[in-house]
From TrEMBL, chain A:
Belongs to the cation transport ATPase (P-type) (TC 3.A.3) family. Type IV subfamily. The active site is at D425. Pfam families: Cation_ATPase, E1-E2_ATPase, PhoLip_ATPase_C, PhoLip_ATPase_N. The keyword Nucleus does not apply. InterPro entries: ATPase_P-typ_cyto_dom_N, ATPase_P-typ_P_site, ATPase_P-typ_TM_dom_sf, ATPase_P-typ_transduc_dom_A_sf, ATPase_P-type_domA, HAD-like_sf, HAD_sf, P-type_ATPase_IV. ATP binds at D425, K426, T427, E543, F619, K642, R676, T757, G758, D759, R875, K881, N904, D905. This is Phospholipid-transporting ATPase. Residues 136-202 form the P-type ATPase A domain.
UniProtKB/TrEMBL annotation, chain B:
Its main location: membrane. InterPro entries: CDC50/LEM3_fam. This is ALA-interacting subunit 3. Pfam families: CDC50. The chain crosses the membrane at residues 20-41, 281-303. It comes from Morella rubra (Chinese bayberry). The keyword Transmembrane applies.
Amino acid sequence: MPEARKTGILFSKLYSFACFLCNFEDSHAQIGQRGYSRLVYCNDPDNPVQVQLKYRGNYVSTTKYTVANFIPKALFEQFRRVANIYFLVVACVSFSPLAPYSAPSVLIPLLVVIGATMAKEGVEDWRRRTQDIEANNRKVKVYRNYRFDEIKWKELRVGDLVKVCKNEYFPADVVLLSSSYEDGICYVETMNLDGETNLKLKHALEVTSHLCDGESFRQFRAVIKCEDPNENLYTFVGALRYDGKEYPLSIKQMLLRDSKLKNTEFIYGVVVFTGHDTKVMRNATDPPSKRSKIEKRMDKIIYILFSTLILTAFVGSVFFGIETRKDISDGKYRRWYLRPDDAPVFYDPRRAPLAGFLHFLTALMLYGYLIPISLYVSIEIVKVLQSIFINQDQDMYDEETDRPAHARTSNLNEELGQVYTILSDKTGTLTCNSMEFVKGSIAGTVYGRVMTEVERTLMTKMREAGDVSIDQQGPDGDSDDSRKSIRGFNFRDERIMNGQWVNEPNADIIQKFFRVLAICHTAVPVENKETGEISYEAESPDEAAFIIAAREVGFEFYGRTQKRILLRELDYETGKKVDRSYFFYSYSQTVSLANSSLSEIKLLELVPREYELLQVLEFSSSRKRMSVIVRNMENQLLLLCKGADSVMFERLSKDGWLFEAETKDHIKKFAEAGLRTMVIAFRELGEEEYKSWEDEFEKAKTSVTADREMLVDEIADKIEKDLFLLGAAAVEDKLQQGVPECIEKLARAGIKIWVLTGDKMETAVNIGYACSLLRQEMKQIVITLDSPDIGALEKQGDKEAIAKASLESIRKQIREGISQIKSAKESTTELGPQKSAIEFGLIIDGKSLDVSLKKNMEKSLFELASNCSSVICCRSSPKQKALVTRLVKNETGKTTLSVGDGANDVGMLQEADIGVGISGVEGRQAVMASDYSIAQFRFLERLLLVHGHWCYRRIAMMICYFFYKNITFGMTLLWFEAHASFSGQPAYNDWYMAFYNVFFTSLPVIALGVFDQDVSARLCLQYPLLYSEGIENILFSWPRILGWMSNGVISSIIIFFVTTKSMIPQAFRKDGQVVDYGILGATMCTCVVWAVNCQMALSINYFTWVQHLVIWGSIGLWYIFLVIYGFLPPTLSTTAHQVLGEACAPSVLYWLVTLLVVISALLPYFFYRAFQTRFRPMYHDIIQMKRLEESEIGNSAELPRKVKDKLRHLTERLMHREL
Amino acid sequence: SRFTQQELPACKPILTPKWVISVFLLVSIVFVPIGVASLYASRDVVEIIDRYDTDCIPVANRTDKDLKIQYIQSSVEKTCNRSLRVPKHMKPPVYVYYQLDNFYQNHRRYVKSRSDTQLRSNSSANDTDNCKPEDTTSNGLSIVPCGLIAWSLFNDTYSFSRGNEQLDINKTDISWKSDRDHKFGKDVYPTNFQNGNLTGGKKLNSSIPLSEQEDLIVWMRTAALPTFRKLYGRIEVDLQENDVIQVTLENNYNTYSFNGKKKLVLSTANWLGGKNDFLGIAYVTVGGLCFFLALTFTVVYLVKPR
């Protein structure tokens, strides 16, 4: 296989990668101690010592149930619901003579309810299982019996030697031994771990990098001692004992499970952590079962109802006991017709207390109708249907990726309507995670006409504010959108494009500028063999954007060898003969830049050029710049440098200051426009100067002292000076479509938005501006540990001191922030309400977050954060994201929603009340862990404001209504009981009761839960404030719930008393017949069915044919049922035998009573609503009114209004011109 | 589709002032006439109610509950004469009811104490599981009809005369037809009924099938509330105003031990049934209230328009 080894670039020779061999002393001292005790026998998994350690296999399971424990565990889950236990007990007892009704009428609904829910659980778990099976059965090559065999992932053991090929996932956490590159480097993509799409470089130990074929592995034996399994993705401490020597291992040798090998043909490695020990699995916290707040409150209501139930049952039993005891006194029988002398224990006057107690049990069952058994199953059905609607929504369907929104769990639909805080990931969630070169300032001139998102949002805001002057700005770049866009490039300027830059006054500077962009980077070009297109694998997307920009302008970077960088350049003196062409392959190729914007216009002549790469001075966060030293074909030594403005301007040479002022000004403008800027400069080096510097540099690099890093930096500093400024380039991390608008809407809906990102602070802040999370007028509070004194402490390496100092500094910063806000508040109150309060944005970095989350400072941090209108946490790890989410969730006690797209967001998604995964370009991990998945961030707006609002409203209404209808029904039972000496005789026939919840009232509720809308989707979006009904939980507040309950009580009183008073005791029809038990039951039940269904008709806002069908259908069903049931033989139909046809229907009184009762039962609610809409309208009432008025006006004067609008617009324009 | 996009054509009722007021007005417009009509119908019914439970007990026994019980349980002849004056012309049929009070025919034990299968067919005469303790005689023979309801059958009897003229009471068709046809079998005859040491109520002629024992059938339709009327028969002649009707009744039924009243009711019936003002009053009240609310809302909207 050695022939397959690429003669890759020996990056290790370059300065940048050499510094990875930094000092390990401190943490490595701990190896072998507690927490660092893992022993791995490489290439020897059967080693007796290791076998004894019993490491877990590589089998991974994420399911909740197994086949064996499904039934008991799922049942247990079911009976964690109090109501279900109650119904189970009732079902058991209903077989005894205690029961007031027959057993099947209780048992069947319960079985249906529990069966349906368990089936749902089972299906969900099965899906997880199939995913696991897929992962566990992936194949990997393992070195066994002196050759590489393919085995399944799950059979992998610790210590195995694996070979992973290009674009394969690592099956476990693997220590890199060697790769297809000679120097043992490889590239990995960690998208599934931290969401970053750029490639990371991993580096094998030098001692092992020569191991690259079966022969060498035959002899290979080594022992790795390392840390125990943990969840930290960014550290690894270990040591490799090989050939009797110990070599330190760090995260640089670690290839983590679920990351992907890129740009490298293959690697060899030793498995260290398997299965659930791997870092990625450690990071996956158990998927918690989430329940919505409404459901939690519903439980409370159920408890209340239980107490009511127990209370009424108890009071009834006491009365019953007293009545029963009185039946025998002094040997005389009072109610002799009950034969008190010969009574079973349930009615025995001589054992009245016992009879009372037994009656208590009976009553518990009888009044069980207060507790809606079908509530849970109805809600479950409704939620599933709601999810289907969410899935089907065309407005949340992304055509580009062909992905609709997907509700992965249906439990949380209504929670979507109550979100108080959104915690969002940035990369890939707010942004597309693709950088675009947008603007450049070259030689003091700004190029690039495309407006950035920020500019656009600013402009729309200005326009809204009535500032029309913006209109005067130049032509909008969007006019020629028809051109095919290139990923990573959004630069439009006719002065530069199509080779036109050669005609610009500073053409030579422009040329140098783009040359720097094309050369000064560490990217690798990848040519697509079929199309010939070149794409770039860069370490960061902005780097790629620069290279693409250079390519589009005419500096195509197409090849890189260890020592050379190959470019195809457009010569700006195209007219002249290129006499240097013999220098190279003497071809002057006409390249058609396929897919490029130029292709249509003209073909460009490009000349290949090559540059000899001498040194790369890598980018680091402290240096904030990167340089390369190259020798061009004219044998000039050039130092090309790009970096952050803060470090670059001080390195300019005195005569390089030419257009510094303009550039600075431009950079400021770019930053305000939300762009990331990079200052581009270059310098010509003298041969002598370079030689002497190189010697020094090499020496520094090979030195072994502890401060080598500093030394290297210092020497690099020496050459990066006296630079000649070329200009500044600006890239935009393109926001996803509609993000600023979406965020603005959400903010207007009263939702707080936090951004948690792994990005650098500067980037995060810029994006904050871009998506209108931060605004210019906002004051920023920055909490960071990037201060010089802490940096100094870090260099000393005194851990305790660092911890102490950082704690102190954070505490101080938080305190300052709080006092700042306080003083701002005070000052605004002094100024009076007309001055709007200064808004604050909090920006905090990961390290500070870590400190403040650990050391009991959560409270004060949260106090600070909750006072800021937006919060950005940058440089945060997945775990921190989850911690912050938990903090926010627990401290506010309100609903939190997190949005993320990468595997790094999984913890956060699971921790939040609702997790929304963006099913974008990155892996599926986030989606798998989420509760809802959407294709783009902007769909969140519709998901929350429309579906969330609707679902919340529906579920809240539905539950309230459920309680109403069951209380109405249950209380009539109670009133009847009071007239039957609390003997436990139900007012209705058994089957009226059994079917009441199932057939006569269930469908309208479900229709309400699925279809009702207070206002249309358009109005939901138009008036985001409507959403606050959910945040404040108005529709499910205690007053409202209790109001509905008392409405139920009132209805039941009206139904029972009006019915009995008007029908008893006189004849109820012309033939002199009187009302008996069966007829009264049927009449009352008729009234109840009518009343609750009409109540439903009254309380819904949205009548489609579905509603009409189910509401009037349910009432019709009741009559049909009565007729059919009445025709059954009397042994089955008992008291209901022919009750409607023979007794009730011919009676006028029956119909009159129904009418009276129904109308009277509806009046209280109708009056309340009429009163409320008039005097204390809810927000949706106002909107409905508005809509109505608008439509009335619109109908009468639609055309004139349009005309008027147009006229107004025109006059405004005219007036403006005159000015 | 519009269905999946939740954009079905829908009517969205909104409580605008116009709507509120017209709904209230509509209700009052409908309800007040109905109420007036009902009241009128109710007033149209002539009803004579005579409470006789105390009056039909010898004066000596009236003082004390125990004495009352003693009297009613004794085997003396308990005939009692009442005279009723007809307040208004009563058109036939005049329905004769007995009304009991404080009698819990809806007690769970009582309601369940019957056997529908046994009542229905001869073959299931032994199906008496629900009937305890009135299921079998002491020597194990099934009682037909079994159970507490049948056992406690009302046994007061009434006969009416006007002057010297005997007024016939038609006791056929006083029960529901479906009961006679489907619930009580033509081949089921009372056996072993009221033979135990404790006699409850009326005894039945064991040569008449249950389907023709209409008093039993009426009684077996248990009442809904502790105060109830049951149809006793019909007088099918005109009763003129100020007619005095002599009632000869046998006061047999023991309501004294549970302080129940007994009333004899003669009533006509019209399309609305018997005499009860409640419905009419309720209709008028609700209608009036709605009218009042309609007015109030109108005033409010006029005085303080939005």
